[in-house]
Amino acid sequence: MSDAPADGLTRLLLAARGGDVEAWGDAFERVYAELRRLADGHLRKEATPGSLQPTVLVHEAYLRLVPEEGARSQFETRRAFFGAASNAMRRILVDRARRRLSEKGGGGRRAVTFFDLGVEAEEDRVDVLSLDEALASLERRSPELAEVVRLRFFGGLSPEGIAEQLGSSVRTVGRQWRFARAWLYERMGAEG
């Protein structure tokens, strides 16, 4: 996901930022398949699978991202756009989980069932609310580690992809990921 000026998405995002309404729609169409894969990844990790379809999640995220009439897009780069899209999807899932809990009269949370926050492990489901709270706590302590978690867990990026995004080494990202993963596991286990 390069932010180079030659990137077609970046050009569209810059045009949308300049007020070109059609460019925003074109940008969304260009990345729709990637957004759908991102949404599918978010939903596979949710503790209550099947509650929402990837297409619905993409469209709800789009509605949160699209600039209001007369406003300009805030995205200048592919990285900024996908980061915001991933965060919008995460917020939607957290909001839905909170609504489900309140509808159940504040029923108990599910126990954390993950060991390593593995992106690849479909069977490892995570309580979205617990993860959101733990990630917010981690972000207060170390925004860099929280960014690595967001890119790995929510963005679905490999350590190599994260290193490229952050301008870091793969080795450093691996070390940060292991530390953040252990910290979140301990934090979420204590809450569960």
Portion of residues in beta strands equals under 5%
- How large is the count of helical segments? 8
Average pLDDT, rounded to a whole number, is: 75
Using only C-alpha atoms, the radius of gyration works out to: 17 Å
Descriptive account of the structure:
- The model is unreliable at 1-6 and 106-123 (pLDDT under 50).
- The protein has helices at residues 8-17, 21-45, 54-65, 78-103, 128-141, 143-154, 159-166, 170-191.
- With 192 residues, the chain is mainly alpha-helical.
- The chain folds into two domains: 1-108, no CATH class; 110-192, Arc Repressor Mutant, subunit A (Orthogonal Bundle), CATH 1.10.10.
- α5 (128-141) runs antiparallel to α6 (143-154).
Layout of helices and strands, plus pairs?
Elements: H1 8-17, H2 21-45, H3 54-65, H4 78-103, H5 128-141, H6 143-154, H7 159-166, H8 170-191
Primary descriptors:
0% strand; 8 helices; 192 residues; single chain; 2 domains; Arc Repressor Mutant, subunit A; disordered N terminus; mainly alpha
Explain briefly what this protein structure is.
Helix content is 67%, strand content 0%. With 192 residues, the chain is mainly alpha-helical.
